[in-house]
Amino acid sequence: MKKIIFYELNEISPRLLEYYIKSKPQSALAKLVKKRNYFKTHTTDTGELHPWSTWPTIHRGVNNTKHNIRFINQDLLASAKYPPIWELLEKDNISIGLFGSLQSFPPIKSKNIKFYMPDTFAPSHDCFPKSIEIFQKFNLLMTNRNKGIARSYTKESLSIFFNVFKNLQISSSVIFKIIKQVSLELIFTRYKSRRSLLQPILGFDLFLKLMKNNLPSFATFFTNHVAGMQHRYWGHLFPGETVIDISEVNNFYANSIIKALDIADIQIRELLDFSKKNNYTLFILSSMGQDSIMRDVYIPELYLEDLNLFIKESGLESSDYKLMPAMQPDICIKCNSKASLKKLLDITENIKDSNGNKLLKKVYEPIGLTLNLSLLRSKLLAKKQVLIFKGKTINIKKFGFTIINRHPGTGYHIPEGILIIDDDQINAKLKDKFQKFIDTRKIAPLILEYFNLDIPNYM
Known about the structure:
By secondary structure, this protein is of the alpha/beta class. The chain has two domains: about 5-150 and about 195-295 and about 410-450, Alkaline Phosphatase, subunit A (3-Layer(aba) Sandwich); about 300-405. Helices cover about 40% and strands about 20% of the residues. It has helices at about 15-25, 30-35, 50-60, 65, 85-90, 135-145, 155-170, 170-185, 200-215, 225-235, 250-280, 305-315, 340-350, 380-385, 425-435, 445-450, and strands at about 5-10, 40, 95-100, 115, 220-225, 280-285, 290, 300-305, 320-325, 330-335, 350, 360, 370-375, 385-390, 390-395, 400-405, 410-415, 415-420, 440. The strands form five sheets. An eight-stranded mixed β-sheet has the order 4-3-5-1-6-18-2-19, sandwiched between helices.
């Protein structure tokens, strides 16, 4: 029986794929699309589209009206009746290797799990086997420290990295790329904006080692590095559609998206070679895509640096709350009881700018005991850096906040993504069923059918 690798290339749209393969006809992607073609996908998720909702739709075979996964690190117990594809496969004795797929915490441990590394927003560095936890520890530290803006390296991050280097035998080519990136940052500050491109290089090096040593029947590798570059620099690659016009185009920024795709292309080339030698079918897919977005004038953002200060100044008990990883401008707070959750919600109603505008918004209803809040922008707050709490004027730093400036963003989520499958038989079957778009809910049952397993009625 053949096996499957999911290369989860986050937020690649048909438009970007076609732009890249046209400009790089010798790329692995161009050759693969020419040989196999590709499918356009469409997500039926409701509300504002986010990868932490749209990927579970692919993995679970139902959209967010059923699985109700709305934010990072929410309680997933309510979604248990729609388990992700790797759980269904594992129960049928199919071996699994999972690397970074969204909403995959906590790791599963069983005889069928060959390796399991949750996503980079996991609340802890727990992995299987334990030997790879040192990498996840570094991963989580860098993701948390550099969300929103790239910050300076710390002794802690360097110390953990040297442990990664020592314990996981990172290849010399990857070490060279890291040294090159750090050197460029020291000489040209603009290269800080490309720091996130190291994450998939490091991760893939470890993933490929794990694959070669374990050969699981179903494996995933998730990478967000192209999505991040698109959010910031889409308008430089496709000028005139956003706030970026022709005269403002920065080629370095535009090329950052291409550079990110080059990294993916190199990895896809390696995976095609690995798949051929080891009897795998390679799926390259995105749960949705990106395209141009016209935003308002950028306002510097509120950023929560210290939850303990926030809790202390709010008059709450620090032992009742824990800050979970999230993506700026969202924050996720886990409460230890319904009573502490209600107190926190009451507090958010009383934190405002000098004009009386609320600064924290409950975007989604709390799920379990986790609360997702969005930090709102305020020109007045950015300028004066004071907030009003219960009628008192307080400096934002005393409340654990600071103001950050980052790229306003010129690319944003659209429902259309891509699916490339290096298998003529599967492609022929899909072409018979789907004319224009493949509904992303159809991918999980496709995998179950591939492994000759029953498809649940809810799919």
